[in-house]
Design a protein that fits this description.
Maltoporin, Chain A; 4 helices; mainly beta; 22-stranded antiparallel beta barrel; 5% helix; 6-stranded mixed β-sheet; single chain; globular
C-alpha cells in the first residue's frame, strides 16, 4: 500500500526530516514559534477523555476551512461530496456523520431535518477555538451519541479591535473577512463579516464513462462547480452575565454532475442549491451559591432551495427537479454546576427543542406526498465528578435521557482519569448510547433522498483506554497521547447510494469498529512539529453476505504532519503532509478510493504595522487530481467527483 505513494511520501518526509535536523543544529536564537494546528490537551483539566484543541488564528491566511482544520486531529475523517467547497461531513473514530454532535457557542447545530452537519456551512472567519472530544463527552453536551463532539467557539467581544483579511487562489477562489469590536450599552460587542467564493472550474482527464477503454478519453473542464458565501456574526455580552448572539449565513452552491462521461460542451448544466440561515440567541450566566448556572433561548430558521434544469419526465424515479426545504427550531437550554462536597461536583443539563419542517417541490405535487413534519426533543443529563486519592483519581459517571416525540432511552457512561504524575495520565471511558433517527433519515429531502419512515433507533457500546504524557525531551517540549478505542453498534443507520444521484438511509444491522489514535506535538527553539495518526478497522457484523465487509468512508490509515519554523524574525515557513489509505466507497466492499498523499507548503511574512502576507500551495505534487476508484474486479476508474489537485493561494491580513 505504501509503495504506491512512495515516490511522493518518502521524499517529502525525508525533506521534512532534513529540515528538522538543520533546525536543531542551527545555533541562531530566533523567536519561538507557537505550534500551529491541532494539539493534544493544551489544558489537561479540560476532560478525563481525549480532546484536541485547534485555534484557527494560528493558521489564518492559509485558506483553511473548518474541515481542513479537523483533518489535523487524530480520529477525524472528513468526507467531501463534490470536492472542495461542497457538502462536507465528519466521522470520528469510525462513526457515521450523524453520530457526531456539532456545537457552536454551546448550541447544538445538528438538525432533525438534516442527517449530519454540513461543515461547509460553518465559516472559520469568526472562530476562536475548536475542540474535538472523543470517547468521554462532558455533561454540557447533552445529546447522546458515539462519544464524539465537535465544539466550535466563536470569538468573544473584548473591547476595541479590528482586522481585515483578503485572500485569492487558484480557480477563482477568494475570501474577505472584516472584524470590528467596541463597547456598547454597558458591555462589549464584536461584529464579523465574511465573504468568499470560487468558480471551481478546473481541467482533468475524463474517461468518458468507459474506464476499460482509454482510447476515448478526453480533456474536460469541470463545469457547474462554483460557490458563493456570505456570513455575518454579531455577539454582545456584559459583566453581569447577559449575552446576545445573532448570525446570518447564505450560500449559493452549484452541484456538478457525476463527471464520468460528462463535462462536454453540449451537456446540460448541473443543479443549484441555495441555503440561507438566520439565528438569534440570548441568555445569562450567574453564580448559584458556590456553583454556577446559565440559561439560553434560541431560534434558528433555515431554507434550502434546490433546482435541477433537467426535464423531470426524462429522469428515473424517484427524482425531483425543484424543491424548497424550510425548517425552524426553538430551543431552551439550562445548565448548572454545583459543588456538593469538597471532592464532588454535580453537573445538570436540560435541553428542550421543537423543530418544524416544510417541504415543497415537484415530487410532493406529482405523488401527493406529505410536506409538513415536526419533532419535539428533550435531553436531560446528570454527571457526578468525584475526586479521590488526594487529587490523583477522577471518576465521572454520567446518565443521559434522550426523548424524541415521546419515545425515550437512557444512555450512560463512566470516565476515569488517573494522574500518576504531573507528566503522565491514564484515561478510560466506557458507555452505552442510543440515537433516534431524525426527520431527514426517515423522510428524505423531497429531492435526492428516498424516504425510510420505519427506521429504528440505533444503539451501541463504546470503550477507550489511553495514556497521555507531557514533558521535555532534550531541548524540546513534547506532548503525546495514544488511545485504543472500540465501538459495537446495533441497527446502525447508514447512508446507501442507490445511484450516482439518489440514496436512502437504512438500518444495516450490526457493526464493530476498533482502532488506535496517536497525537504528538513537539516544540524547540524555532521549530514546531505536529503529528497525528489514526488506525481504524470498521466491519459490518450483520449475519449474511455482508458479514466482515468493510464499512465505507473509514480509511484504515490516516496521517497528518505539520512542521513549521521561523526562518527569521519576520519570516515563517511550514510544510504539511497528509496521507489517507485505501478507503472503501460502497457497502459491499467492491469499490474503494486509492490511497492518497498530499503535500502543502507555505511562507508567512510579518509586515510592519501588524500585517501578514501568506503564500502557499496545497497538494504540491497534484496527487489528488489523479486519484481513482478501484473496483475489486476491473481497471481503476474516474472518481464521481474529481478533485482540483494543486492549488495556490495568496493572502494579506491587517490588525487595526
Amino acid at each position: 500500500m505504501f509503495l504506491r505513494v512512495g515516490s511522493v511520501l518518502l521524499p517529502t518526509l525525508c525533506l521534512v526530516l532534513a529540515l528538522s535536523v538543520q533546525g536543531i543544529a542551527a545555533g541562531t536564537d530566533l523567536p519561538a514559534v507557537v505550534v500551529t494546528g491541532a494539539r493534544p490537551e493544551e489544558d489537561q483539566d479540560v476532560s478525563p477523555g481525549a480532546v484536541t484543541v485547534i485555534r484557527p488564528e494560528e493558521t489564518e491566511g492559509e485558506g483553511k476551512t473548518l474541515a481542513d482544520l479537523l483533518e489535523q486531529s487524530p480520529g477525524v475523517h472528513v468526507v467531501r461530496l463534490r470536492g472542495r467547497g461542497g457538502y462536507t461531513v465528519a466521522s470520528v473514530r469510525g462513526s457515521t456523520a450523524a453520530q457526531v454532535a456539532v456545537y457552536v457557542d454551546g448550541r447544538l447545530v445538528n438538525s432533525a431535518s438534516e442527517s449530519a452537519v454540513d461543515l461547509a456551512s460553518i465559516p472559520v472567519s469568526a472562530v476562536e477555538r475548536v475542540e474535538i472530544y472523543r470517547g468521554y463527552v462532558p455533561a454540557r453536551f447533552g445529546v447522546s451519541g458515539m462519544g464524539a463532539v465537535i465544539s466550535v467557539t466563536t470569538r468573544r467581544p473584548s473591547g476595541y479591535e479590528g482586522a481585515v483579511l483578503v485572500e485569492g487562489g487558484t480557480y477563482g477562489e477568494w475570501r474577505t473577512t472584516l472584524r470590528y469590536g467596541n463597547e456598547l450599552g454597558g458591555g462589549r460587542y464584536l461584529a464579523v463579516a465574511g465573504f468568499s467564493g470560487a468558480t471551481g472550474d478546473f481541467s482533468y482527464r475524463n474517461d468518458n464513462g468507459t474506464y476499460w477503454n482509454p482510447d476515448d478519453d478526453y480533456e474536460a473542464t469541470r463545469r457547474n462547480n462554483a460557490w458563493r458565501e456570505k456570513n455575518v456574526l454579531f455577539r454582545w455580552e456584559d459583566d453581569e452575565g447577559w449575552n446576545l448572539r445573532a448570525e446570518y449565513f447564505a450560500r449559493s452552491q452549484e452541484l456538478p454532475r457525476k463527471a464520468s462521461g460528462g463535462d462536454k460542451p453540449d451537456d446540460p448544466p448541473g443543479a443549484d442549491l441555495d441555503t440561507t440561515r438566520t439565528e438569534f440567541a440570548f441568555g445569562r450566566s450567574a453564580s448559584l451559591g458556590k456553583g454556577v448556572w446559565s440559561w439560553n433561548v434560541g431560534y434558528v430558521t433555515q431554507e434550502k432551495e434546490f433546482y435541477d434544469p433537467l426535464d423531470p419526465r426524462t429522469l428515473p424515479l424517484p427524482r425531483s427537479t425543484r424543491n424548497r426545504y424550510e425548517t425552524t427550531q426553538w430551543h431552551l437550554l439550562t445548565q448548572a454546576s454545583l459543588p456538593v462536597a469538597p471532592n464532588q461536583t454535580l453537573d445538570l443539563v436540560a435541553r428542550a427543542s421543537r423543530e418544524t419542517l416544510d417541504v415543497r417541490g415537484d415530487a410532493q405535487t406529482r405523488y401527493d406526498l406529505r410536506s409538513d413534519y415536526d419533532q419535539d426533543a428533550l435531553d436531560l443529563t446528570l454527571a457526578d465528578t468525584v475526586v479521590l486519592g488526594g487529587g490523583t483519581l477522577f471518576l465521572v459517571p454520567t446518565v443521559r435521557w434522550n426523548s424524541v416525540d415521546g419515545e425515550g432511552n437512557v444512555s450512560w457512561s463512566l470516565a476515569a482519569e488517573w494522574r500518576m504524575s504531573e507528566a503522565l495520565r491514564w484515561k478510560a471511558s466506557w458507555g452505552k448510547y442510543h440515537r433516534a433517527p431524525n426527520l431527514y433519515e426517515r423522510y428524505g429531502d423531497g429531492a435526492l433522498i428516498v424516504p425510510r419512515p420505519d427506521l429504528r433507533w440505533e444503539s451501541g457500546t463504546q470503550f477507550d483506554l489511553g495514556v497521555h504524557w507531557a514533558g521535555t525531551v532534550g531541548a524540546a517540549r513534547v506532548a503525546a497521547g495514544v488511545t485504543w478505542f472500540s465501538s459495537d453498534v446495533d441497527d446502525l443507520i447508514e447512508f446507501v447510494m442507490a445511484s450516482p444521484y439518489v440514496g436512502y438511509y437504512d438500518n444495516i444491522g450490526k457493526s464493530l469498529i476498533e482502532g488506535v489514535e496517536v497525537e504528538v506535538t513537539a516544540s524547540w527553539k524555532r521549530w514546531d512539529l505536529l503529528l497525528s495518526y489514526t488506525y481504524t478497522n470498521g466491519e459490518n457484523r450483520s449475519p449474511g453476505a455482508r458479514w466482515g465487509k468493510p464499512l465505507p468512508n473509514r480509511p484504515r490509515h490516516a496521517l497528518f504532519s505539520r512542521l513549521s519554523t521561523a526562518l527569521s524574525a519576520s519570516l515563517d515557513a511550514f510544510a504539511e503532509v497528509e496521507y489517507v489509505s485505501e478507503n472503501w466507497f460502497d457497502q459491499t466492499g467492491d469499490l474503494a478510493y486509492e490511497d492518497l498523499t498530499t503535500v502543502g507548503l507555505g511562507v508567512k511574512w510579518f509586515l510592519p504595522g501588524g500585517g501578514t502576507a501568506t503564500l502557499g500551495v496545497r497538494d504540491l505534487f497534484d496527487a489528488s487530481s489523479d486519484r481513482k476508484l478501484v473496483p475489486s474486479v476491473g481497471a481503476p476508474q474516474l472518481v464521481w467527483y474529481p478533485d482540483a489537485g494543486r492549488t495556490w493561494y495568496l493572502s494579506f491580513s491587517w490588525t487595526l
